[in-house]
Specification:
The protein is mostly helical. It contains three helices and no strands. Helix 1 packs antiparallel against helix 2.
Length: 74
């Protein structure tokens, strides 16, 4: 199912801010050695979903800052 909605510039900036905060928090948590690997696997899937949302509203340059890192364990 494909959904669409219209947002104004202020709403876009707010969405971008919220998504960036979530991406940063996930990145920080994925680097935490105290978190179980199974949980980190779920976090990586969540990160990918949120990053895909971010790609829809952010510039290509901004997206590069949050581009998921490729690892051999995927």
């Amino acid at each position: 199912m494909m959904l669409g909605f219209l947002i104004n510039d202020e709403e876009q900036k707010e969405m971008e801010y919220l998504i960036k905060r979530e991406l940063e928090e996930l990145l920080m948590d994925m680097d935490d050695h105290r978190i179980d690997q199974m949980v980190k696997t779920s976090m990586k899937a969540r990160y990918q979903t949120i990053f895909n949302l971010y790609r829809r509203i952010a510039s290509k340059e901004d997206c590069m800052k949050y581009m998921p890192k490729r690892t051999g364990d995927q």
